[in-house]
């Protein structure tokens, strides 16, 4: 008995097509070959929000998004050698559910798999092969409205300050070109240290992902730093605009997702570290989306 | 709407089926030690990446062209493009000084003796990712852990490295980068590069920073090349590799994806400086993605540098970007300019607190610190200035001016811009240099740079003199030590003037340079330690000019040298110069000229003193004698100097010579003895013999003294009747008379030679005088004889009236022996009879006056030295008195005074016989 594997060609956006390849030395007797497409959202509450005990027990039930099966081959025999069986699998949603993008987070996981089963007679074991496939949504059509943000950071604008008097004086101005971001394009903007009494040690962009799971017990909100990019190192020149530029990491980002049960959101923190170890953070929520730019231009 | 993709990712070997394989391994939880295969959990696009696709085709038409069969449609556009590419690539020609030539220079210049350290955190980047994404799918984590395992220890800290160790370590890193790459450990290679570039953010031991930059950017270059070649090799299609100037359309998707992966990976590097350097290193790879990639990246990277706080680190980052930019896309000038302008904007930081504090901690002075910028700024400006229009350069100049003419900038401008450009504006530059704010950057370096330019290109004819004057004004204002600067100037001039013997046309200018140098440097030790000074002199190959210059130098030396010197540098140099002057003397040289030269050389000789090292001093004189044998006054000076040396020795030994000093003194005497005969002037010789004889005598070298005196005696007959004095012929008798008197006085103390007869020298001299052909109508011989009587009279004393210390004269030798006295008496009688004979011959009418004078002179002698109790002598004196008055030629006043003297003497004790004498001396009153 040899291997079987898929080769998936994603020509059509609404059809999963590919080929099942079966190789074996001998002829294979089987009770039928079928393909199953499954898609589900797994939510997990973090230990931070509920007790440790609950964290293990209260795993929210997986939400199934898609589940369909097609029969590829009727029971019969396959010849020895390599057999290729092409297939086309329409992506049809259950009811009016939305096809979310594939996403692997800490507390939220959206995963799609394609399973190929070869049923066999009682004597031989059934053969199963599973493969994850990745869904990129192109659902957000149309123009992305840029939403520029200007910001000014001074000791007065800060919250959560214990001793405002001990703070060195500083004035940092800047802007983000847009908080609505296309995921494939960098976050851009500018930042100017107009003045600062203390020397600047470092300025960083911290990309934070916030996962929110809602369930019967309430909701859990967890933030994870997924990327930290330094944009200034050392005591930068005053009054000189420093570019803000951050490429979104492909592995850890997805379009901002909001559903009734869970949310995946992103924020960026501009972190200014002064030499006297003062840490100044300014937070900006982001909205990420995936837009084919070619389409956007049309 | 959905789009489904399966993604070949990362830099593992590309295989379309690989992602699937990996997926399965996940379910089976296979361990994959050492595997570098890829992961499928990425959410990237591959087939039609929206980003790259939009960058690919700028207009729909070209998209069409690309989509169509490349073979049929390509040729025309391809050809055109190739042509354009060719133009672009030829933008950097051989006239652009490549980085490689700067490398060595920087490494040699910026060195340190301080200890360095290398701190490498291998895998820290990944470690961070692991901790943050605690729920990152397990396979990613395992993979990351494996990557960490690739390193023996994740952190290496190497402390206390010497510079050489440091360079070796960096070279090791370079090697391990290549090894990692060739063994397919791409991630490890990337880590090495990141860690290396991180070293560039470390400015401890700041004076080494430029060299560190050189070393580390070497690694970055290696890395950039490896990545580029790797991706290029993936583009090999049907075993046909891409042409040099390929277009992104002809790059296959796998290669593009790999390339994109690199960029994504680098974009996620946390720290700014490594992110910048690594991306800059693979800038060229943008060519695989899109045509405009590089032109979009460069400005972004340029502005990214603004985030680097340390101005030194930033300027080197800019230099690296310019370097990569020039290599990859020399046609993109904008970024180069932008880099420079950004640098200007941040320039004020250099004087900010942060930098100043750092310098204080590291004990680095501002001037030194500023020179650390030079290689970077020079390079940036060189890139900008390359084939740049004058307009741009003028703008650059203006911008620099706006920053208060900062010296550092100005210097770099001058070293980077075209020499012609600078030369044409040299007056402007001089004005700028004069005005510029030095702020620790020495001005002389600016003039040096300017000079270098002027050496390459001629400034406008009219300005030249003014330029030199202006420049020199400032140069001379420089405080000590200015040696290096002068040296540089001279070196430049030499460099400029030597080809084609250009100096032949510029003697007056060169001469004026020398004059200026010696006007302002009169510390000759300093002057001659200027390496290029003597080579500079060598340029004066026309003898007259050369001698003039030498004279100037010597004059200055004599004028300014206060203390005697024994500095070998000065001595060698001045001997060389004096020799040059001396050698110019020939048969045609005017006496005046000779005298001037001799005076100068004498002035030098007089200023040489080796202190108590008398032997060294003597050997110097010996050397000088051999060098200056053609100038008599110099030889004379040397003899005097040697005599002085002998006397100095005597003084030091307080008259008691040891064996060693005695030998040394004899050596001095010998020096004089053999030197004197080479002189031509006879009186000089005579006087020197006498003088040296006296010195020998004083130093108890009796036989040597004898030799001198004998030589003098035997030389007397050669004295000519007339000698030339100051160019006029004069009778020599007065000189001879003077000399002989002097000689006789000396002979008093010269002891007789035991093997020669009594008063050997006196007799010898008298014989010579006797035989000498005197002028017919001269009384000199008699005058001398009269003087000899003085001597003889002195010799009869029991103790001579003067002595030479530690030398026994005849008084001690003979102790008033009667035989000796008899000899003297005999001699005296002979002399007296000679005198009287002569007086008789003067009896003629026309010589009566002379007779009177001589008689009176003789009378006086007898009066002073004779024993007038002797009746014969008494009678003789009375006769002489009468003879003197006989013909009325005697000066009455003198006679009266003489008589008064006698009367006065007579009142002294034991002088009563004078009373009688006075009575016998009638005064003849004139009628």
Automatic annotation (TrEMBL), chain A:
One of its GO terms (cellular component) is endosome. It is found in: Endosome. Keywords: Endosome. The keyword Protein biosynthesis does not apply. It comes from the Eukaryota. The keyword Mitochondrion does not apply. InterPro entries: Arrestin-like_C (IPR014752), Vps26-related (IPR028934). Gene3D superfamilies: 2.60.40.640. One of its GO terms (biological process) is intracellular protein transport. Component of the commander complex that is essential for endosomal recycling of transmembrane cargos; the commander complex is composed of the CCC subcomplex and the retriever subcomplex. Component of the heterotrimeric retriever complex consisting of VPS26C, VPS29 and VPS35L; within the complex interacts with VPS35L. Interacts with SNX17 (via C-terminus); the interaction is direct and associates SNX17 with the retriever complex. Interacts with SNX31; the interaction is direct. Component of the commander complex that is essential for endosomal recycling of transmembrane cargos; the commander complex is composed of the CCC subcomplex and the retriever subcomplex. Component of the retriever complex, which is a heterotrimeric complex related to retromer cargo-selective complex (CSC) and essential for retromer-independent retrieval and recycling of numerous cargos such as integrin alpha-5/beta-1 (ITGA5:ITGB1). The recruitment of the retriever complex to the endosomal membrane involves CCC and WASH complexes. Belongs to the VPS26 family. This is Vacuolar protein sorting-associated protein 26C. It comes from Lamprotornis superbus. The lineage of its organism: Eukaryota, Metazoa, Chordata, Craniata, Vertebrata.
Automatic annotation (TrEMBL), chain B:
InterPro entries: ARM-type_fold, VPS35L. Its main location: other. Residues 144-176 form a coiled coil. Transmembrane segments: none annotated. The keyword Protein transport applies. The keyword Transport applies. Residues 33-48, 66-78 have a biased composition (Low complexity). Keywords: Coiled coil, Endosome, Protein transport, Transport. One of its GO terms (cellular component) is endosome. One of its GO terms (biological process) is endocytic recycling. Residues 15-54, 66-97 are annotated as: Disordered. It is found in: Endosome. Belongs to the VPS35L family. This is VPS35 endosomal protein-sorting factor-like. It comes from Lamprotornis superbus.
